[in-house]
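S.,

As promised, the 1,3-dihydroxyacetonephosphate run. Input:
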Amino acid sequence: MSKQRAKLVVGNWKMHGRLAENAVLLEAVARGAGELPESVRVGVCVPGLYLAQAQALLDGSRVVWGVQDVSAFTQGAYTGEVAAPMAVDFDASLAIVGHSERRAYHRESSELVAVKAQRVLEAGLTPIVCVGETLEERNAGETEQVVGAQLDAVLAKLSPQEAVRIVVAYEPVWAIGSGKSATAQQAQDVHAFLRARLVAKSVAAADVPLLYGGSVKPGNAEELFRQPDIDGGLIGGASLKDQDFLAICKAAGAVSVTQ
Ligand code: 13P
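Predicted complex:
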């Protein structure tokens, strides 16, 4: 088996959680993460209102925290928006941009996602840029075209030095919340394509973590994480259950090594 690199596992809570249950979950994840090998990095992206809670309960632990979206603007008359520097006030280090739910329900274009990635980088945070195809697009043989264009839109706005600071999450839309993960081979194929695309754009692609997301569970995590181009996972539903999330982090630990 080829030597595996360090892994990154990030929970995307989506619009779930209330103060009391968050506290139980955050404390359990912080405790469990302390027992993971050094080769696994762990993060949680919480609803923005709970950043202060995440900061209070995760500070000093192995777990980093962040938000699930940011505004394309730094400040101003944009009612309801939250800007990347605001997340920095709570010591966040991650911000998801371009999740398929935002692309679908909020009509976010790849160009807008690219601007958001820029704002996140300017604030000193790490953007987790999500890409992924729908089932129709996959069935039409358009997966590479779709995810390639989504990635290119972001890379077009970043220098190679900036691009090396992003994380890319491949999340096939049909696998999200469906219980039907991509197979390890399907995911690996797209990850290899994305890695090659980064190289083609002069990005030091070995340094860009490529996460897989879409129905990752304790039972399928290790096989996914064993793939040479899968550097970890972006976990939705299973990140809301401490034991499942920590089991997924452990699976990452089982196939990773400290670089
Ligand atoms: P599930 O793990 O619930 O399929 O969600 C994946 C996802 O969208 C993470 O961003």
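Residues 184-200 form the longest helix (17 residues). Residues 12, 99, 171, 176-177, 213-216, 234-238 surround 1,3-dihydroxyacetonephosphate (CB under 6 Å).

- D.
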